Amino acid sequence: MYRLLFIPLGLCLFIVSYAQGTSMITLAQNNFNRSIVELAAIEKTCDSTRILPISIRDNLTIPDAQLRIALTYFYFKTQFDCSRAGVYRYLLDSAALSIVHPQKAKTLQDGHHLVMSTYIQLLNAKAEFATLPDGLKKKLMAMPIFSTPFDLIPSAHQLLPVPEEISENRSTTVRSDLRVSKFLAPPVDPAYHLEIPQP
């Protein structure tokens, strides 16, 4: 009698376990999908167009190479700090989905590299930032202007000189273009200006 009861009971446990597993996969997938949408929204708010003012140079008398290291570090630091909560949520939901649905583990792992790219770049920038003098690091980290996201490329163009070889190559390339009728460059003009007549 006990044996006859054991078979239906075992089948019942299997059915319950299967139903719970299916439910968990659906729930984990929904959570993961939601975390992707939330992370995208967070990263959009972190994508700042703020350009650091040139007045920063008035308070910093440091070599261009050190300022370049600092700008790179604070750019990735503020980007990651801004999106940290969304990244953590994504990684948690991704890990949960890979556990309850192992067939998706490889695909999810590939996505981790993309989501973690800012953090990996931050680690690299942080290693370079660590080579700066301690006093300079403390001064830079105490500056509020470096505490929120900013647009790296235009900020670097404003605060750092264009290497002479790059500037000369750029000028030569533009001047050799037959479509350009007028071209002004530093030091004649504070910025690069070119005119191309339209038909």
Care to describe what's here?
The protein has two domains: 2-161, no CATH class; 162-199, no CATH class. It has eight helices and two strands; from the N terminus they run H-H-H-H-H-H-H-H-E-E. 69% of the residues lie in helices and 3% in strands. Mean pLDDT is 79; it is low at 1-19. The radius of gyration is 27 Å and the shape is elongated. It has a two-stranded antiparallel ribbon with strand order 1-2. The longest helix has 45 residues, at 2-46. Strand 1 and strand 2 (193-195) form a beta hairpin. It is mostly helical and 199 residues long.
Write the layout of secondary structure elements.
Layout: H1 2-46, H2 56-59, H3 64-100, H4 105-115, H5 117-129, H6 134-141, H7 152-159, H8 164-175, E1 182-184, E2 193-195
Antiparallel strand pairs: 1-2
Helix pairs in contact: 1-3, 3-4, 3-5
Total individual domains: 2
Shape: elongated
Strand order in space, largest sheet = 1-2
The SS-based structural class is: mainly alpha
What is the strand tally? 2
Spatial gap, N to C terminus: 96 Å
Q: Report mean pLDDT, rounded to a whole number.
A: 79
Portion in strands? under 5%
Computed over alpha carbons, the radius of gyration is: 27 Å
Following the backbone from N to C, one meets helices and strands in this order, namely HHHHHHHHEE
As residue ranges, the low-confidence spans are 1-19
Counting DSSP H or I runs of 4 or more residues, the number of helices is 8
